[in-house]
Amino acid sequence: MVKCEVCKSEIEKTFLNKIKGTYMRIGKKQKIICNTCQSKFSKEEILKKID
Which own/partner pairs from 20-27 qualify as long-range (CB within 8 Å, at least 24 positions apart)? Predict the structure, then answer.
């Protein structure tokens, strides 16, 4: 299972096995963010919580 980098909850998948969220690139690494964290926090707040 895939987990959100901010809230550590499991991310749901669609029937095509795609995640219901987004990837954020930080340097050369990709971090996965769920839909609920995207709607709660701004981009700057998410970047602060990941680091």
Answer: 24/50, 26/50, 26/51
